TrEMBL record:
GO CC annotations on file: membrane
Protein name: EGFL6 protein
Taxonomic placement: Eukaryota, Metazoa, Chordata, Craniata, Vertebrata
Pfam families reported for this sequence: MAM
Native source organism of the sequence: Ceyx cyanopectus (Indigo-banded kingfisher)
MAM domain sequence ranges: 2-148
Gene that encodes it: Egfl6_1
PANTHER family: APICAL ENDOSOMAL GLYCOPROTEIN PRECURSOR (PTHR23282), MAM DOMAIN-CONTAINING PROTEIN (PTHR23282:SF101)
Length: 149
């Protein structure tokens, strides 16, 4: 497994330069490191900010599981989407509302064909809300299928 979290991870993260705003580090409540976040008030409605995880050394014809923590906090805060590089037009995962503001776990299976996925993009789209944030943390890539809960 590869640790792509933000505090100690070994992965290559890049801010997209063609989007409307950047993701920024935010301190964790317990003080142990940070996560990446977009506050609700950044940008205008429908603006997007994209954070790209560059993947290298993924083997063709194999499966991987991307596991991450996410939080959508605040009224009408917006939408969090995940895209794979070779399927740019449609998100492979999307969330825009939660019952509460707890951190949750997202899982995405990545099946490598002969052409491998070379990046994963976390996209935050601004909603109508003025408070709260969209956050992502603890991004881990493991080989094989995603484990059941």
């Amino acid at each position: 497994s590869v640790d792509c979290s933000f505090s100690r991870g070994v992965c290559d993260w890049k801010q997209d330069t063609d989007d409307d705003f950047d993701w920024n580090p935010a301190d964790r409540d317990r003080g142990d490191g940070y996560y990446m976040a977009v506050p609700a008030f950044v940008g205008h409605k429908k603006d997007t900010g994209r954070l790209n995880l560059l993947l290298t050394d993924l083997k063709p014809k194999s499966s991987y599981c991307l596991i991450f923590s996410y939080r959508l906090a605040g009224e009408r805060v917006g939408t969090l989407r995940v895209f794979l590089a070779n399927k740019r037009h449609a998100p492979v995962w999307e969330q825009n509302k939660e019952k509460d503001e707890r951190w949750r776990t997202g899982k995405i299976e990545i099946f490598q064909e002969s052409e491998t996925t070379n990046s994963v993009t976390f996209e935050s789209e601004r909603g109508k809300g003025k408070t709260g944030e969209i956050g992502v943390d603890n991004v881990i890539l493991i080989s094989g299928l995603c484990p059941e809960d």
